[in-house]
Amino acid sequence: MTTVLIADDQAMQRFGFRMLLESQDDMTVVGEAGNGTEAVGLVARHHPDVVLMDIRMPGLDGIEATRRIITSGARTRVLIVTTFDLDEYAYDGLRAGASGFLVKDALPEELLSGIRAVASGDAVVAPSLTRRLLDAYVHHLPAAPGDLPLAADPRIASLTEREREILTVIGQGWTNTEIAGRLHLAESTVKTHVTRILAKTGSRDRIQAVILAYDTRLVNPR
């Protein structure tokens, strides 16, 4: 059973999410929050598998709430739900530790599959969409490290040459299938490399690995 917390300042939106989720045999809603402060408190109390997190809420917004949940060490994963006109905030949410994002007008089956994917440890945002998102909002990236050698970043220094190569193409939006085909590797081998990359770099999921590739300039913004 996947436990879900709904964080949204609109009561009707929360009601709609609850009705959808509780119609599923494998999901249950453990609470609702009308702002980020309530969401952080309810996560500490109920330890849900997934939080559906709105971005714009009164007081503590969804981005800062996400950051606090992730830095607390909670096992809870955050799925940000936003609207098309708020996409510029999605990048900040991903950097805060969210495992993905969806738009509020997504089809019900897309939301349900997104929750299941996040609960199982996967990222919701497709690699190609992640790349477009980061390219579009590259001004949010930290300043380039100047003459600091790439290997000085301990997260990158811990990788083998092959792992660094795979992290680079992950940042470029390649799927596991594309990596296997272009680098002449078995897809199972690619999955093993990706798992090791996530573990060595401390990345919660593939999205965080993409952000790392940008931050360390393994991938240069277009």
TrEMBL record:
- Report the residue ranges that make up the HTH luxR-type domain in this protein: 152-217
Q: Using the record for this protein, list the coiled-coil segments as residue ranges, or answer none.
A: none
GO biological process annotations for this chain's record?
phosphorelay signal transduction system; regulation of DNA-templated transcription
Pfam families reported for this sequence: GerE, Response_reg
| A GO term, aspect molecular function | DNA binding
Q: Which UniProt keywords apply?
A: DNA-binding, Phosphoprotein, Transcription, Transcription regulation
Q: List, for all copies, the residue spans of the domain called Response regulatory.
A: 3-119
The chain residues annotated with the modification 4-aspartylphosphate are: D54
Q: Where is the signal peptide?
A: none
Lineage, top-rank taxon, reads: Bacteria
Determine if Phosphoprotein is one of this entry's keywords.
Answer: yes
The UniProt entry, under SUPFAM superfamilies, shows: C-terminal effector domain of the bipartite response regulators, CheY-like
Return the protein name: DNA-binding response regulator
